[in-house]
Each structure stands twice: as C-alpha cells, then as structure tokens.
Amino acid sequence: MIHKEGKKIVAYSLAFCIVVSGLLFRMAPIVSYFVIPTIWILFSFVAYFFRNPERSTPKVSKGAILAPADGKVVNIEEVYENEYLQQECKLISIFMSPLNVHINWNPVDGKLVYYKYHSGKYLVAWHPKSSTDNERTTSVIETENGQKVLVRQIAGAMARRIINYHEVNQKVQKGTEFGFIRFGSRVDIYLPLSAKINCHLDQKVQGKLSSIAELSI
User: Fold this and answer.
1) Are 91 and 195 contained in the same domain?
2) Which H or E run includes 65?
3) Total domain count, the chain
C-alpha cells in the first residue's frame, strides 16, 4: 500500500516511466535495453519509499513509549531541552535512512500542548547541530498524569519536506500517525529523567511496534 503523501508522486513517476520507456523503445531500441531497466529500478525505489505497511499497535504497559519512527538509535543521553520543556531530559535519537518507512507515529497517549514548525538548514541528520539548526517540527504531548514528552522531526541533507498533522489541544493516541518526512531524516524524543530507557545505541527499532522506554506512573 502506498502512503497518502506519496500517491501523487508515485502516480506521476509511473506515468513518466511508461511514456519514456515507450518512446525509447520506439526511437532507440538498442539504448532502451540499458536505460529502461534503470528507469524502472528508480521507480521501484520511489514506490518502496512511500510504502505504508499495516501495523497493529501492540499491547504494552500504560507507561510504555513506542518508537515514533523506523530506524537506528544513534544517540541516548541526558541533555537540557531549551525550546519548551526548559529542563534536563533523556534524549533518544532515531536516524531514518532512505530505505526505512518514513511515517511517524505518536509514542504516547495524551494531549498535544505545544506545536511549532522551524525553518532551517539541511545538515546531515546525524550532525550534532541538526536538532537546533535544521528544518524541524517540535510537538509536546502531555500524558494524563502530567508528564510531558517532546517529539522533534528533523530534516536531513536529503529531506526537503516535513509533514506534521498535529494540532494544539488535540488528543492523540499511542501508535497513531502524526507525520511523514521525505528521504532520510531523524526523529528525537525527549523524556523525563525518571523514564527508564529500554533501547541501546545502534539498535534498529520499528515505529509503532518497538517499546523504547517506560514512563514512571
């Protein structure tokens, strides 16, 4: 299944491949034997990038925090979050390669109390300053017991569009979609210091499925 954010792109790419393949086959049959397969390989990548796999939210504890994205855990540390939380937090960073599913999911249940889009640069996603200098969005979800979880979508060198469906004051459910990032990026999640981390560096996680941490309840 193709994600809604990619349906037009995949449709246009398919039409382009059909037209170009037909023209090449008629006008340059010898060249077409080499070029046409390449065109369709590229189309396959585009369709694969926008895939939308069916996933059911697993039964986890109330305090479980699900991975907001597919990818590899590239950073776990304690940092000061200065945009909204204004306090020391535990940070987990997940790097999404172009081959990962690029849908983003809400990691916890709660109410969205803050959202902001920031324009910015397009440093490589693993650059230390990408979380503060790159194009990004910041969303803060407050759980029913008052704990706040901040999720930040960060554009990478290849990502040129961040999509976020969040609206302030809306209620969100763990495992529901909240956004999409095109072509390689990173998602950071800031947690209270009391949270227990259940993942490790270089671990590959799946959005909506992997429990990466636990909030104290």
Assistant:
1) yes
2) strand 64-66
3) 2
Does the residue 55 lie in any domain? no
Say if 21 falls within a structural domain.
yes
Q: How many CA atoms lie within 13 A of 164 on its CB side?
A: 24
pLDDT in tens, the chain (217 residues): 899 988 999 999 999 999 999 888 888 878 778 888 899 999 999 899 899 999 999 988 889 999 999 999 999 999 999 999 999 999 999 999 888 999 999 999 999 999 999 886 666 655 555 566 678 899 999 999 999 999 999 987 655 678 999 999 999 999 999 999 877 689 999 999 999 999 999 999 999 999 999 998 7
Q: E strands, 106-200, where?
A: 110-118, 136-142, 148-155, 162-164, 171-172, 177-181, 185-191, 196-197
> Would you name the residues annotated as active-site residues?
185
Cβ–Cβ < 8 Å for 125, 154: yes
Find the domain containing 77 and state its range.
Answer: 64-207
Tokens of 12: 């246009």
Quick one: which of 102, 83, 100, 93 has its CA closest to 161?
A: 102
